[in-house]
Amino acid sequence: MRKPIRSKALLVSLMFVMLFALAACGSKNNNGAAESTAAPSASAPAETAEATAAPEAEDGLYNIKDFSNIKTNQGEAIDGGSITFGLVSDSPFEGTLNWNFYSGDPDAQVLNWFDEGLLTWDKDYVYTNDGAATYEVSEDGRTFTFTIRDNVNWQDGKPVTAEDWLFAHEVIGNPKYDGPRYGSDFTNIEGMDDYHSGKAKTISGIKVLGDKKLQITYLKSTPSLLTGGVWIYPLAKHIFGGMDVAKISSSPELRQKPIGFGAFKVESIVPGESVVFVKNDDYWRGAPKLDKVILKVINPTTIVQELKSGGVDLVDSFPVDQFPDNAKMSNVEFLGAIDRAYTYIGFKLGKWDAEKKVVATDPKAKMADVNLRKAMWAAVDNDTVGKKFYNGLRWNATTLIPPSHPEFHDATNPGVAYDQEAAKKILDDAGYKLNGEFRTNPDGSELKINFISMTGGDIAEPLAQYYVQSWKAIGLNVTLEMVEFNTFYDRIGQNGEDDPTVDVYQGAWGVGIDVDPTGLYGKDAIYNFPRYASAENDRLLAEGVSEAAFDVDKRKEIYKEWQQLMVNEIPVFPTLYRAVVVPVNNRVLNYAIGDGTGLYYNDIAVSADKAAVAQ
Q1: What is the CATH number of domain 133-248?
Q2: Are 343 and 508 in contact (CB under 8 A)?
Q3: Are 581 and 320 in contact (CB under 8 A)?
Q4: Of 418, 434, 453, 553, which has the highest C-beta tally within 10 A?
Q5: What are the phi and psi torsion angles at 169 (to 5°)?
Q6: Distance in angstroms (rounded) separating the CA atoms of residues 129 and 56
Q7: Would the pLDDT of 20 be above 90?
């Protein structure tokens, strides 16, 4: 799953997301947790424990390798307590609070607290049998048999069943489904195409073998099935089973009274602003140590004040451009990890065909000439951007598989190097002639490029302006529009409606645990926002999940070739790889970011009644 990312200190998108998320959903780490200043208490704020030393900068640059991703515990846990978690954003969260329907990272941050997937994965992104369900695989690798643990229950006391898991697949496969999930992971299930088209009333490849046992047979055994290719999120049939599928995503049961089977349950919601969670005593891993978690949206401009005052105990992500000035904050420990994400510039090359549910490339699109796209990549100095804007905590990106997947990231591929003189020559040779300050199209007509980017922290607009000025330096007339997160993704096509006035956009993807990029760049992926397709892309994406790809070396070779194809064709170009930096109040115990840490949301505890404040 991948999700677009919201721009926190600049314009990062996840929607997710990515993302699929679509990315960090159901992970077994405490990827954000905190509770806050909400519950008044007569006791004094916690004494500030001795601050855990922050990594030191060398020549003004930080290295993410110097950070720990696991919080150092200070003190002994008290009984109960609450924390406040800050969702850093300049706009409200959308409120699509179900894994089967959400699209953006902000909603995923809310979901993480009260719901999870039935399977977990290890640090290598491989599904384990440590989650709410276990699985067995047939000898041919096509049939998975899942068993949900007996003590896994929805937060209203009803058991989570195999029927709920089947129901999630039925809803996503329904032609009335209005979410972003339906794609190659689902069409690989036996009988799904017939069900989706209305030729069959059931999905032949999914069988309920018992109240807690489900069997899914896939058309092809692929290496992705063990690393994110199985849909692991059930949908409560006793709540949503009687609804019109087209109305589920807007229902109060999903937006105002959401249900899950995670460590905490939703007590109240102020739409887009805050959520109060209370402990789920019936949580299958054991009752949480905390009594309550308060999630609130905080603006990037006030995050430092909130952290220093103890207004929040931790946040989903800290704007890394603000880290150098706050690295010595005495009441928090900064955790860090390589993010499963990258920022990128995308080019609109077509539109979404809603009837056929595939991208429709337009050879006459304004950005259709790869020479124009290559020149725009060569014109920007992302190495300097990472150093000057982010002090080394974001760095030059070269390919569309990030270093969070080191087995498959091609570190030898340089991408397109920064060279403005080379960029000018590319345009000259392609016929984009200067006419005064700016260039014309090869046919002599005016070339005016419309660029949108997301609002966010203090450097969101300056960074976008940097790109505009870089393109101006090679003679391109680019106009910038800054757009709020939710509107941004609507305009670039998250709902299948592409704004024809958008030519170029800056976004970011949080990638899934599975390296397969089909969910972002496949021809049937609605998240393929550039609307790019080619026969070679189809071939490589198919080979990446073929039987031959079970040989890891062969799969590496395939994705190395795919990364080079994207460098050659440039439907988008990556700008920055990212570190995630998370400050955690000294009183918080048993907290970590990243994958495979063995810490879960029910483990989080506090050593004092109130948050420590900065000295």
Answers
A1: 3.90.76.10
A2: yes
A3: yes
A4: 453
A5: -65, -40
A6: 39
A7: no
Structural contact between residues 254 and 101, judged by C-beta atoms closer than 8 angstroms: yes
Task: Please report the sign of the dihedral spanned by the C-alpha atoms of residue 123, residue 127, residue 130, residue 131.
Answer: positive
| 223 contact partners, CB below 8 Å, separation of at least 6 | 545, 549, 550, 555
pLDDT, average across residues 233-251? 98
Q: Are strands 605-606 and 332-347 parallel, antiparallel or unpaired?
A: unpaired
More confident residue, 540 or 34: 540
Tell me how many helices (H) and strands (E) the chain has: 17, 23
CA 542 to chain centre: 23
Question: In sequence order, what are the beta bridge partners of 216?
Answer: 144, 206
pTM of the model: 0.82
Q: How confident is the model at residue 21 (pLDDT cuts 50, 70, 90)?
A: very low
C-alpha distance across the termini of the chain, in Å? 41
Q: Where are the domains of the chain?
A: 2-43+51-112+254-329+583-606, 133-248
Is residue 148 classed as helix, strand or coil in its secondary structure? Answer: strand
Two structure tokens written together for 310? 């103890």
Burial 17-26 (b: 16+ CB within 10 A, else e): bbbbbbbbbb
Gap between the Cα atoms of 181 and 172, Å rounded? 7
Helix H, strand E, coil C: the string for 318-385 is: CCHHHHHHHCCCCCEEEEEEEEEEEEEEEECCEEEECCCCEEEECCCCCCCCHHHHHHHHHCCCHHHH
Closest to 538 in 3D by CA, of 556, 560, 557, 523: 523
User: pLDDT tens digit string along 279-332?
Assistant: 999 999 999 999 999 999 999 999 999 999 999 999 999 999 899 999 999 999
CATH architecture of 2-43+51-112+254-329+583-606: 3-Layer(aba) Sandwich (3.40)
**DSSP one-letter string for 56-115:** PPBTTB--GGGS-SBPPP-SPPPSS-EEEEEEE-SS------STTT--SHHHHHHHHHH-
Cα distances (angstroms) measured from residue 519 to each of 117, 188, 365, 560, 593: 19, 13, 23, 18, 24
3 state SS of 31: coil
Between residues 227 and 481, the one the model is more confident about: 481
Can you give the pLDDT at residue 51?
Answer: 59
Q: 79: Cβ–Cβ under 8 A, 6 or more apart, which residues?
A: none
Q: Which residue type sits at 400?
A: L
369, 459 contact by CB (below 8 A):
no
How many Cα atoms sit within 13 Å of 133 on the Cβ side?
30
Q: Where are the alpha helices (DSSP H) in 188-291?
A: 192-197, 237-240, 245-248, 252-255
pLDDT digits (tens, 9 = 90+) for 89-115: 988 999 999 999 998 889 999 999 999
**Burial class of residue 251 in the structure, from the number of CB atoms within 10 Å of its CB (0-12 exposed, 13-18 middle, 19+ buried):** middle
62 or 54: which leads in pLDDT: 62
**Two tokens, residue 202:** 């059931």
Please give the helix or strand (H or E) that residue 588 lies within, else none: strand 588-589
543 HSE (CA, 13 A, CB side)? 17
What residue has token string 């330096």? Answer: 473
Annotate 145-201 with DSSP letters as a single string. EEEE-TT-B-TTSPBP-HHHHHHHHHHHHSTT--SS--SHHHHTBTTHHHHHHTS-S
With the C-alpha atoms ordered 114, 119, 123, 125, is the resulting torsion angle positive or negative? negative
Q: 3-state SS of 255-274?
A: HCCCCCCCCEEEEEEECCCE
Determine the 3-state secondary structure of 5 from DSSP.
Answer: strand
